[in-house]
Amino acid sequence: MPAQLLDGKALAKKTEQELSERVSDLKARNGGRAPILATILVGDDPASATYVKMKGNACERIGMESLRVEMPSSTTTDELLAKIDELNNDPNVHGILLQHPVPEQVDERACFDAISLAKDVDGVTCLGFGRMSMGEKAYGCATPKGIMRLLEAYDIPLEGKHAVVVGRSPILGKPMAMMLLNANATVTICHSRTKNLAEIIGQADIVVGAVGRPEFIKAEWIKDGAVVVDAGYHPEHKVGDIELAPLTGRVSAYTPVPGGVGPMTINTLIYQSVDSGENSIGG
Ligand code: NAP
After folding, report:
1. Is 122 labeled as catalytic in the residue annotation?
2. Ligand 1 centroid to 14 CA: how many Å?
3. What is the pTM assigned to this prediction?
4. In terms of CB atoms within 10 Å, which of 24, 110, 248, 273 comes out highest?
5. Is ligand 1 within 6 A of the CB of residue 19?
C-alpha cells in the first residue's frame, strides 16, 4: 500500500478557512477590530525576513492584523526587552512573535522569556514549555505543535508507539519529545552525542527529523511501516533532514518536503493567535 501523505499544506489551507470565520466573529464582537499578532524582526537576515513576511501574510489571509516591528542588527538585549514590555502592555496586541535567531549580542532566552504567557502564541517561553510538559494550559511551541496537529488530523496512533526524535533544540526537539510523551508515546531523544543512531532509529514506529542537515537521516535506517516526520527544509537542495525519496513506497505515512511541517508551523502560530484573541476579547 502506498504511504499516506501527511499534507500540511492542505490542512493549513483548510484550517485558514475556519480561522477566517472565527476572526470575523471576533471582529463583530470587538467593534470591528481584528486581533493583532506583533512580529519582531531584529537584524537583516534575509531568511528571517522571509519567515516574518510569510507569517504576516498568513495573518492577513485570515483577516487578522500583524504589527510588524523591525529593529536594527545593533539592537541590545535591553532595547529588545523594552520593546517586548511595550507589546506585553498593549491591550490591542494578542500575540508576540520574536523571530529566531536574533543577533548574537542579544540574550535570546531572556527576550523569549520576557514575553507574557498570555501572548506567547509561538510557545517559546520556559514557563510555557514547563506548563505544557506538565500537561497544564499553555500555547505549544509552533513547529512541534503543528506536527502534533498534523498527526492528529490524519488519525496517526501515538499511544504505546516508539517515537524517536532526532534533535533536542528548545524550539523543536525538546518540546516535540514532551508532546509525544504527553500523547503516551514511548520517546527516545537523540542528539549529536548519541551513540548507535542508526540502530535507535531502526526501532522507531515514528521518526521525527529535526537535525538541520540535508538528508542526514538515511532511508535505510528507517523500518518498513514507520511514520516519518521531517521538520527540516533546505531550500538550496529542496530536501529536508530525512532521505525521503526511497521511503515513500514502504513507510506508512510521511510529511512531504516542502508542504508538510512548514505550513503547519505558520498555521499553528496564527491558530494560537486567534485563540489568544478569543481569550482576551471573549470567544
Ligand atoms: P538546531 O537548533 O540546530 O538543533 C539541531 C539538533 O540536531 C541539535 O539538538 C543537535 O544536537 C542535533 N544534531 C546535530 N548533529 C547531529 C548528529 N550528527 N546526530 C544527531 N543529532 C544531531 O536546529 P532546530 O532549530 O531544532 O531545527 C532543526 C531543523 O528543523 C532544521 O532543518 C530547521 O530548518 C528545521 N526547522 C523547521 C521549522 C519549520 O517551520 N518547518 C522550524 C524550525 C526549524 P546537539 O543538541 O547535541 O547539538
Report:
1. yes
2. 28
3. 0.98
4. 273
5. no
Q: Which long-range contacts (CB under 8 A, 24 or more apart) does 8-11 make?
A: 8/146, 8/150, 8/255, 8/256, 8/259, 8/260, 8/261, 8/262, 8/263, 8/264, 8/267, 9/258, 9/259, 9/260, 9/263, 11/149, 11/150, 11/153, 11/263, 11/264, 11/267
Q: Is the CB of residue 123 below 6 angstroms from any atom belonging to ligand 1?
A: no
Return the residue whose CA atom lies nearest to atom 42 of ligand 1: 143
- CA dihedral (267, 269, 270, 273) positive or negative: positive
Does ligand 1 lie within 6 Å of residue 267's CB atom?
A: no
Q: What's the pLDDT score for residue 4?
A: 98
Which positions of the chain have pLDDT values less than 70?
A: 283
Distance 36 CA to ligand 1 centre (A): 30
**pLDDT digit string, tens, across residues 178-204:** 999 999 999 999 999 999 999 999 999
pLDDT in the model for residue 283:
56
Domains of the chain: 31-118 (3.40.50.10860), 142-262 (3.40.50.720)
Asked if 36 contacts 7 with a C-beta cutoff of 8 angstroms, the reply is no
User: Does ligand 1 lie within 6 Å of residue 261's CB atom?
Assistant: yes
